[in-house]
Design goal:
By secondary structure, this protein is mostly helical. It contains 15 helices and no strands. α5 runs antiparallel to α7 and α10 packs antiparallel against α14.
Amino acid sequence: MRSFKRTKGDFVFDSINYMLMLGIIVVTLYPFYYVLVASFAPISQIISGKVLLWPASVSLQAYRTVLNNPLIPRSYYNTIFITCFGTLFSMTLTVIGAYVLSKKYLPGRPQLTFMVVFTMLFNGGLIPTFLTVKALGFGNTLWVLIIPSGLSAFYLVVMRNFFAELPSSLEESASIDGASQLTILLRIYLPLSLPVLATFFLFYAVGYWNAFFNAIIYLSDYHYWPVPVVLREALVMGRTDNMFIRDDEFGAPLENVKMALIIIAVFPILCVYPFLQKYFVKGLLVGALKG
């Protein structure tokens, strides 16, 4: 292969790019790093602005405060439950719906696809949805954060397009060998769909993990609150009553507890993301070209 000699201008251009990207990385990551460091720092150092790279002394009192508050582990359990069951529920609906709509021989396929796409443009609104959810008896249950928002029409359409692009000969060969539709889906289609499955899995999981609006609307009992709602009460609303966090009761300043709460809330997603990141580029682009 023919090699090209790099000029001085190429080195200057690359150096500027590297410095620019390094600056973007620092600006992006430092706020999170500061929150992490501040969660271990004494409140006096935070107030005085002495916490830049690492605190002079390290304390775990904020994390002990968070874990000793019964509301925090309970909200963490709620969030894990919502994320695990919600993601499984959403992925099941998305895969089954996309597989069915990808079949050109399906009766009424254009009409069904139109009904799915229609929901991307119009919805019933907040008040009718609230009344419907209440009438179905989902109020003040964790299922209210899973079932009403269990399917994304956009993800369904993208996965449907991906399934439609797979060669029909795969299904025909499996059918000749006696494979059922469920076997074809599980043994042929899903193994070929790992990039798009991993991408939507993470999108659904992050959506459920960070969901707080529906919880604020439908959950009046704080025992069912997920972690994002607890974060909102501490960071935005500044709740410090005896239902939540008090400095004198739990032994750590509220500012440190806020920092620890942020770290605890985002840590699981940060652990999952690196394992799925390699599927992102292909997963986002595949199936998005054909209608």
